[in-house]
Amino acid sequence: MSAIAPGRRERTKAANRAAILEAALEVFGELGYDAASVRDVVRRTGLASGTFYNYFPDKEAIFRALVERTGDEARRRVRSARTRARSAREFVEGGYRAYFEFIVEDPATFAFLRRNAGTIPAFFGDRVVPQGADELAEDLRAAMAHAELPDVDVDYCAHAMIATGLELGARLMERDPPDVEGATRFATELFLGGMAAVATKPR
User: Fold this and answer.
1) Three-state SS for 60?
2) Which pLDDT tens digit goes with each residue over 21-58?
3) Is the pTM of the predicted complex or chain greater than 0.70?
4) Distance of alpha carbon 65 from alpha carbon 118, whole angstroms
5) At the N or C end, where does the chain have fewer CB atoms within 10 A?
6) What are phi and psi of 105, to 5 degrees?
7) What's 64-198's CATH class?
């Protein structure tokens, strides 16, 4: 029994944390960050009120955890799309489409992002955006080395591409229905044309 118990405890802890995160995703999606409370989240889980504080110290901590979880998954999908690219168009278009499709595919995530669009950026800055920018810069350099993209200022380009994705993502959520194709097309043509114009070495 003693060898099994620790594993069961870990599974219980993981299940409790997951239940709290899913409840918080729904609550923040419905009420927004400012109006939501820890009590709202706890009520949605069915767990004892004290259980929440075994995993998160306050509302800000669980909101940050959701932002980081969402950002990590978005980065994973976008990078996967970029690494499969075999041309400049596939690199730019595939990355943006993966991001915009991620935003809208899950109703709970979509509601969370849309309802908290003004709050989330304050929680992006210290980890999600820097990691995303570093990964994109690395992928840009690799694509340039393989002549898939023109040579441009990687630092400027990576940050401009991320900023554009975040802003267009916020705008497409305001449209009914969300305009994934329009946002993808706009961002793709903007950067394909822009990269060619600012290339340091003509291809």
Assistant:
1) helix
2) 999 999 999 999 999 999 999 999 989 889 999 999 99
3) yes
4) 17
5) N
6) -70, -35
7) mainly alpha
